[in-house]
Amino acid sequence: MKTSLRLLNAIGRSLPRSRSTSFIGLGRMGHEMAYNLFSKQFAQANESQFVVCDAIPESTQSFCSNFIKQYPGANISIANTPEEATLASQTIITMLPSSPQVLSVYNDGIIPTLRKLPAIQAHNTLCIDSTTLDVDVARSVAKYVTEAGSQMVDAPVSGGVTGAKAATLAFLVGGTITAFEKAQPLLALMGQRIIHCGPSSAGLGAKICNNLILGVQQIVVGEAMLLGTKLGLDPAVLSSVISSSTGNCWSISVNNPVPHALPEKSPPCEREYEGGFATALMLKDMGLASNVAALAGCPVPLGQTAEALYARMIEERPDLARKDFSSVYRFLEKAMEEGNTVKPGVVLP
Ligand code: NAD
User: Fold this and answer.
1) The CATH number of domain 8-200 is 2.130.10.10
2) Which atom of ligand 1 is the closest one to the Cα of 31?
3) Which of 195, 201, 235, 345 has the fewest Cβ atoms surrounding its Cβ within 10 A?
4) Which residue among 53, 281, 286, 324 is best mutated to probe the pocket of ligand 1, counting the most ligand atoms within 8 A of its Cβ?
């Protein structure tokens, strides 16, 4: 175990980069994605080498320990920095919280390292960023990676932690056809649908539009469930009716916010809203949508209202920031119990 978890102090000289894959960002999503990717790569070729990197050392330690327990003999190592992770592997996957972390990992770690590599090694390197972040930041990072001679795709995901665990994610990919074709076989080990959306940042554009819908949808599902319960309906009956009617959507039929409303499923509400998509991340995505909409001159009044509501929720209930965003139901419920009308600062065109 000790040798497998050794620090990579001689990376680049001792390891063949072509057989190695680095994964940076082992959070709720990254942990599951890296696990699927590495276990399937190991099954395909057990001489593959895996490198993990995270700002929290315990995350990489526990990932490696679990992986080695499941796959004895696997060659998995910890990189202390994105620079080490880049020196170690020809494929670098990043799954970070948002723009500031991507800027720091790429601009201070990956890109300067790519610039120092021999041209052939830089040429063979592929960066895949699955973070949901600002379109402009993604474009600029991809430009610098490309100028360093390497290839890059933005490949944000849809499907949540459940999809990451089950390897059923949808990857929305932006980049050249060549980069897409290089990334596709790897992404297929972590997801089910790999969609080329267009040039660099197109995947991100698609992801932001999807989450604009999702952020609004989860609030209105919370409102409807609360109203229905107040009108005396059983949450399970109401959910079943809506799921088979025109109001059906992922937020009611999969991510239902009311415990026991989906007897055959286990959404985050069944675990005190743990383990899903954090409210803080949803607030971030609503912000990404309003920023890019403002730049494009496109009105998003419901998106802005939802953004204001999530912001107020986190301000008043900081304990819900890390919980699944379906906990907006709890926020609305508390407002109802206190006799408050939630006034999120509606912005209408
Ligand atoms: P997370 O906060 O759980 O994980 C992020 C990880 O990045 C953490 O382990 C953190 O320590 C690490 N990190 C942060 N800064 C770093 C740095 N400088 N160097 C190395 N590691 C660093 O977030 P998550 O839920 O896994 O989400 C990741 C991305 O995926 C976000 O952009 C999110 O919007 C998107 N996403 C999440 C979900 C979901 O359901 N959680 C669904 C779809 C998309």
Assistant:
1) no
2) 26
3) 345
4) 281
